[in-house]
Design goal:
heterodimer, A: 9 helices, globular, B: mainly alpha
């Protein structure tokens, strides 16, 4: 699909979304279902990358759609629906992350999470021998721990840019800050991640060299 | 050092390929000349590579297919909105409550009373069926009948959806007029099919009907998009639906379901023929 076609499609989608919102406001639940179908994956992945837990991410993503439904009457017609939804997703996830940091870390859901990650590792490299897989698991743990060390805001901009393919400008729009702020948060996140990863690499031998 | 500060501000843009065309040559020149910036940039680049090796566990297609049903249940439970077929009217009424005159409620209440009366009448005054079979046998027959009924209804659902999906997929936006699609009718049927989908998916739960359930879920999403198309002349929206059909491999899945149904019915036919031959030989 050419870029002009994509732009046309995006414009058509935006127009379509305004109509969808109007229909939801008049009580049409099918229009709301279509909004959910369009955004469920993106919202779930943003929530997952910020909080790092499957069950919580599903809970948050549902909460996002419920909040959206409740606030639809106040939605500014000139605003972009996707940015609004992403903003609710980011704020709800950050709140949840803060609450989670206040709680003790290991619980049953964490153990389930490790199981899910091991399954993901297995399907990503089924041919790898147990030793290499153990090293890979260790590396995943260190990556997760490094992500836990940055602040919620730094983590949010990093996961949005790095794993969810938002451009810096788009992140700025969603968070309602300047591009400069997003860049400095990203810069700080990368510096902290580098520090965390190099210290854990010092203790275990895995990953790329920082020498 | 002042220069370094200026170029460090560009690190993030450069690392994510968002550096402007004008800034790029100056940035690269500075990295060649400044060993400190070069080292820091390389270290950040390695950090990004390591972070890219993070594996995000995929929750799977089943998780996303059942997403709406779970959300709808939660919204019902939390009384955000009634999303099921019957209760949906309550939500509509509650949103419109401020503008609805009292006589409208009275009219709705009397229609409901008439419907309840008809239902009760049919329930208590219908002549009873013969009950010659033992209870266990009757239960077994009705259970297997319901299994067959569910599969049969699923195939019927797929056939009705197929007509719409094929018509949209075969539509050639460059050479055909969208009016040939007869949109108002297609949308009406799509809406009816979307309404049927939730109940059918529930009945199809279980390993035996997993594939049929997945196909019904896929069709539900596409039919919902068709039902929600705003204008029949909106070519880009039609193309989005066509992309959805292609990316989900819906036509291929329908073909597989058709083949499975043909195989099942041939098997049933040959078993019936065999039984008939056996009885003739006696």
């Amino acid at each position: 699909m050419s870029s002009s076609n994509r732009e046309k499609n995006e414009m058509a989608m935006e127009e379509n979304e305004t109509n969808l919102i109007e229909r939801v406001c008049s009580g049409d639940i099918y229009a709301f279902q279509e909004i959910v179908e369009r955004y469920k994956k993106k919202i779930y992945y943003i929530a997952y990358d910020i909080v790092g837990d499957h069950h919580e991410a599903e809970d948050i993503s549902q909460e996002v759609f419920i909040k959206m439904y409740r606030a639809l009457d106040h939605f500014r017609k000139d605003a972009k629906m996707s940015s609004w939804l992403y903003q609710i997703a980011v704020n709800t996830s950050i709140d949840s992350l803060r609450r989670k940091k206040a709680k003790p870390r290991i619980n049953v859901e964490d153990i389930e999470q490790v199981g899910l990650q091991e399954q993901a590792l297995e399907s990503a490299s089924p041919e790898a021998d147990p030793e290499r897989r153990a090293v890979a698991t260790l590396m995943q743990e260190h990556i997760d721990l490094a992500l836990d060390k940055v602040t919620p805001q730094e983590r949010t901009v990093f996961v949005m840019r790095h794993y969810n393919e938002f451009k810096i400008r788009e992140i700025a729009d969603v968070l309602e800050v300047s591009s400069g702020t997003v860049k400095s948060l990203l810069f700080r996140a990368l510096k902290k991640l580098r520090k965390e990863l190099s210290s854990s690499q010092g203790k275990h031998r895995w990953g790329a060299s920082y020498d | 050092m002042i220069d370094c500060k200026k170029y460090k501000d560009m690190f993030v843009d450069a690392l994510y390929g968002e550096l402007s065309f004008e800034d790029k040559p100056f940035f690269e020149k500075h990295l060649k000349e400044c060993a400190l910036c070069r080292q820091e940039y390389e270290e950040m680049s390695v950090t990004m590579d390591t972070m890219s090796q993070r594996i995000r566990p995929e929750p799977g297609a089943e998780f996303f297919d059942g997403y709406w049903d779970r959300l709808a249940k939660r919204m019902d439970k939390e009384r955000v909105v009634h999303t099921t077929k019957d209760k949906w009217w309550e939500s509509l009424l509650s949103r419109k409550a401020g503008h609805t005159p009292r006589w409208a409620y009275q009219a709705v209440a009397s229609i409901l009373l008439v419907i309840v009366g008809i239902f009760l009448g049919r329930m208590f005054f219908t002549p009873s069926q013969g009950t010659d079979q033992p209870a266990t046998m009757a239960q077994a027959v009705s259970q297997s009948d319901s299994q067959i009924n569910v599969s049969q209804r699923a195939f019927d659902y797929i056939q009705r959806s197929k007509l719409i999906v094929v018509a949209i997929s075969n539509f050639d936006s460059e050479n055909q007029d969208p009016y040939v699609l007869d949109f108002p009718y297609q949308q009406q049927v799509s809406r009816e099919l979307v309404q049927e989908a939730s109940l059918l998916k529930e009945e199809l739960s279980g390993r035996r009907h997993r594939r049929l359930q997945e196909l019904v879920s896929d069709l539900e999403v596409i039919l919902l998009q068709i039902a929600n198309l705003e204008e029949e002349s909106d070519i880009s929206a039609i193309e989005l639906v066509q992309d959805g059909v292609k990316s989900r491999g819906i036509l291929f899945k329908i073909h597989l379901a058709d083949t499975a149904q043909f195989r099942d019915s041939s098997k049933a036919q040959s078993e019936a023929d065999r039984a008939l031959n056996k009885s003739k030989s006696f």
